[in-house]
């Protein structure tokens, strides 16, 4: 989904920054997309960002703001699924930290840039990608980090599957009129 969206944005002549924690994969994607869209007028670059680290997110935002680039579209597309139990650098359950908290922090730290980049009738946009797995989960507000029972595959507590719950939180952070259910 990320590559398809990037292709479209490049064809529209936009400057696209893709981020990720796999440098080789990111640079290979940039090379491929740049070759495919060499005549579009769009520009693409890769910037390293570890979305499982609040420190890395804050450093990325700081560096981005230093560049004084406009930000018209932010697409939160990163996600992990079926990861064995582990914690992010900041101590959060991995699915919850990567699939929700990182997008929430990144978006909120960039809102001022987005507001300044938009115009009346041409406002900047945030796009949060997700799947329908939020229907299968139930949030346990007393155990968001899944410390009492963890099952990345859902075998033990299928309705508490961390991926599903991270998708519930992503969906709940969207404005109802801006999200769709299918």
TrEMBL record:
Family (UniProt): Belongs to the short-chain dehydrogenases/reductases (SDR) family.
A UniProt-annotated Pfam family: adh_short
GO molecular function: oxidoreductase activity
Name recorded for this polypeptide: Dehydrogenase/reductase SDR family member on chromosome X
The organism of origin for this protein: Neogobius melanostomus (round goby)
InterPro entries: NAD(P)-bd_dom_sf, SDR_fam
Cross-referenced SUPFAM superfamilies: NAD(P)-binding Rossmann-fold domains
Record key words, sorted: Oxidoreductase
Keyword Oxidoreductase: yes
PANTHER family: DEHYDROGENASE_REDUCTASE SDR FAMILY MEMBER ON CHROMOSOME X, RETINOL DEHYDROGENASE
């Amino acid at each position: 989904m990320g590559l398809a969206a990037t292709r479209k944005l490049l064809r529209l002549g936009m400057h696209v920054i893709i981020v990720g924690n796999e440098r080789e994969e990111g640079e290979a994607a940039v090379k491929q997309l740049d070759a495919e869209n060499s005549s579009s007028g769009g520009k693409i670059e890769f910037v390293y960002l570890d979305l499982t680290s609040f420190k890395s997110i804050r450093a990325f935002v700081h560096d981005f703001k230093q560049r004084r680039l406009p930000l018209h579209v932010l697409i939160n597309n990163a996600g992990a699924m079926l990861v064995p139990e582990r914690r992010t650098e900041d101590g959060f359950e991995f699915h919850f930290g990567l699939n929700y908290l990182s997008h929430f922090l990144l978006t909120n730290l960039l809102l001022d840039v987005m507001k300044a980049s938009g115009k009346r009738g041409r406002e900047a946009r945030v796009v949060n990608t997700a799947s329908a797995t939020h229907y299968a989960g139930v949030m346990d507000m007393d155990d968001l980090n899944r410390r009492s029972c963890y099952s990345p595959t859902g075998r033990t507590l299928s309705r508490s599957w961390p991926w599903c719950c991270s998708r519930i939180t992503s969906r709940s952070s969207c404005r109802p009129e801006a999200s769709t259910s299918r």
